[in-house]
Specification:
Number of domains: 1
CATH architecture: 2-Layer Sandwich
Helix content: 25-40%
CATH class: Alpha Beta
Distance between the termini: 43 Å
Structural class: alpha+beta
């Protein structure tokens, strides 16, 4: 019998949808409050996941969902950079 590889699932902080980790992007915040985009998913610190969707990113910015989840102020540049990942 072959072992079935488990797909890591994560929840989007905006839509609350549980998706495969690969379909989401991680945003990490260090204890010092430094927020960065973590495309590899290995950066240290508290992490939050977002769906790579323009509307979701804009909604996250408006609702400050990431600020609450990461317990840090997320600068606008992070949202701008996230929008480039969507490539709209």
């Amino acid at each position: 019998m072959s072992k079935v590889k488990k797909i890591p699932m994560r929840t989007c902080v905006v839509t609350k949808e549980v998706c495969p980790k690969k379909a989401l992007i991680r945003i990490a915040a260090t204890k010092e409050g430094v927020v960065s985009i973590d495309p590899i998913g290995k950066a240290p610190g508290r992490g939050a996941y977002l769906k790579l969707d323009r509307d979701v990113i804009l909604k996250a910015r408006k609702s400050k969902a990431l600020d609450r989840k990461l317990e840090a102020k997320v600068p606008d540049e992070i949202y701008e950079e996230l929008l480039t990942y969507v490539g709209d």
